[in-house]
From TrEMBL:
EC number(s) recorded for this UniProt protein: 2.3.1.48
The species this protein was found in: Phoenix dactylifera
Location of the Histone acetyl transferase HAT1 N-terminal domain: 29-197
Recorded name of the encoding gene: LOC103714338
Chain ranges of the N-acetyltransferase domain: 229-283
Protein name listed in UniProt: histone acetyltransferase
Length: 469
């Protein structure tokens, strides 16, 4: 980490500027206004602000109690993060420092809380490009290859030296408690913190964690193989009563330069392939972001479209929606997938029940005539029913949620169980309760339903595009 006061500009009228800069109480600066992170692959990209700059999540919570940086004038924190060895180097520049009433923020601990030991000095950082050029290759050498495909020509980045066979994309699975793999993960944690809202590191000492790495394999002109890391997913094996296991995707991240090229989907599919081959109970995802949920729903719905056994049940609900005016009915609508169908989907496709219910709505929507006003009103009435049910479940959960610690074989401080003291289960994702008077609540509910309808339509549109292509 290099701390620099910008030379040249300090002398001369420095005193005057300082007085101007801190004449008032220091209001501080938001971390995201002065921190920039650049992803670099080569030594000569270090120090250049023209390198690939990533969009960061809110970093304020790393910087002091109120999340602001105090005491610096024209502060810039530029960080170069190597996507070869996953080390980082920070260059901090400012015109001057002065305590303007709130002290001078110590930047080092804040940066260390994000980058940990991967934050190193410039000289050492520059050397990593040659010393650790095969870092990823060495780590993945013992992993299990789950998926391999050749890269399409138009997906190939211009900086790749093409060999006769062309690059391949592989998804490789390995256990996180192996020391070198755990160390790699510790170097990837900064990316989780910088790119995933609310991202937290996982505990690599628990042997139930695995990491799925999506990599690009190439050959350089001398025939030596090069392996680039494109993204990863951490997956936990949960015990499922009485004698099976669930796979839960905890974090999934594709490095920003490689996003939107199908690698996130490859990771999801690789986790699914393990679920099939090992007859896992089902696959779940821990607090998916909106985009991940969209991607996952598109992918699962595509699988479901090809799954014949559910078609009669879909037709039955579609016919029901074509009937009279369901929005006027007082009893609960017959819309949810039948229990035996849910069970079959879980067994054969490993799609979790909650996720299947989401895809079910898309499948129904795909079979409706969107021009048929009555039919769409009926569909909306069913979505409204479901949203209200979710809110009631959420409230019941909030009332009855309990948390207890339970011992395990590795570290008794690490394991806890959440359970509901009343009838409960996993929530369906409506955040918080409705607030305010009945009219405001009605308005909020209507907005929630609109949003659900939009999401369903968006996924349906993408799925039909992919299905017909
Ligand atoms: C639990 C958690 O970890 S939550 C946090 C999730 N991670 C993050 O937010 C970190 C930052 N974001 C990322 O790392 C990435 O954007 C991810 C992991 C969310 C997604 O990975 P990506 O590689 O960008 O996605 P990928 O390219 O595979 O898929 C996206 C596209 O594939 C489409 N798709 C989905 N299924 C299929 C399919 N079967 N066939 C073809 N395309 C498909 C999607 O519709 C989407 O296209 P669109 O956006 O044009 O509509």
């Amino acid at each position: 980490m290099a701390l620099k006061q910008k030379g040249g500009e300090i002398s001369g009228d420095t005193k005057k500027r300082r007085r101007v800069g801190f004449a008032n109480i220091d209001t501080g600066v938001e971390a995201n206004e002065c921190v920039k992170v650049f992803l670099v692959k080569k030594e000569d990209e270090v120090g250049k602000t023209s390198s690939y700059c990533i969009d960061l999540v809110d970093l304020n919570h790393f910087f002091g109690e109120d999340g602001k940086i105090y005491g610096y004038k024209d502060l810039k924190i530029n960080i170069w993060l190597s996507i070869v060895s996953f080390h980082a180097y920070a260059e901090i520049t400012y015109k001057s420092t002065q305590d303007g009433g709130k002290g001078i923020t110590d930047l080092k601990p804040a940066l260390q809380s994000i980058f940990g030991e991967s934050l190193i000095e410039k000289e050492e950082f520059l050397q990593t490009f040659s010393k650790e050029c095969h870092y990823i290759r060495n780590i993945v050498s013992d992993g299990k290859v789950l998926h391999s495909d050749s890269l399409r020509k138009d997906d190939q980045a211009s900086d790749i030296h093409l060999d006769a066979e062309g690059p391949t994309i592989e998804v490789i699975c390995t256990e996180l408690h192996n020391l070198p793999v755990g160390l790699l993960y510790s170097r990837l944690v900064p990316l989780v913190l910088l790119l995933v809202e609310g991202g937290r590191p996982i505990d690599v000492t628990d042997p139930r964690w695995e990491i799925f790495l999506v990599v690009k394999k190439m050959q350089d002109p001398s025939g030596d193989s090069i392996i680039d890391l494109l993204g990863f997913a951490t997956v936990y094996r949960f015990y499922h009563y009485p004698d099976s296991t669930r796979l839960r995707i905890s974090q999934i991240l594709v490095l920003p330069p490689y996003q939107g090229q199908g690698h996130g989907r490859r990771l999801l599919e690789a986790v699914n392939s393990v679920a099939f081959s090992e007859n896992i109970y089902d696959v779940t995802v821990e607090e998916p972001s909106d985009y991940l949920q969209y991607l996952r729903s598109c992918n699962d719905t595509l699988h479901l479209l090809a799954f014949e056994p559910i078609k009669p049940s879909i037709s039955s609900v579609v016919s029901y929606l074509k009937e009279g005016n369901l929005s006027k009915r007082t009893s609960k609508l017959r819309f949810a997938p039948p229990a035996n169908v849910m069970e079959l989907v879980r067994q054969k496709l490993k799609i979790n029940k909650k996720q299947f219910r989401r895809c079910w709505e898309v499948l129904i929507y795909l079979n409706l005539d969107t021009e048929n006003h009555r039919c769409m009103e009926n569909f909306r009435a069913c979505i409204s029913d479901r949203v209200k049910g979710d809110i009631l479940d959420k409230n019941a959960e909030a009332n009855g949620k309990c948390l207890i610690e339970v011992p395990n074989d590795y570290d008794h401080d690490m394991t806890f169980v959440v359970f509901w003291s009343q009838a409960g289960g996993e929530s369906d994702g409506i955040d918080g309760k409705l607030e305010g008077d009945p009219a405001t609540q009605e308005e909020q509910l209507s907005q929630l339903i609109d949003k659900e309808m939009e999401d369903i339509a968006e996924i349906a549109q993408k799925v039909s595009l992919l299905h017909n292509s």
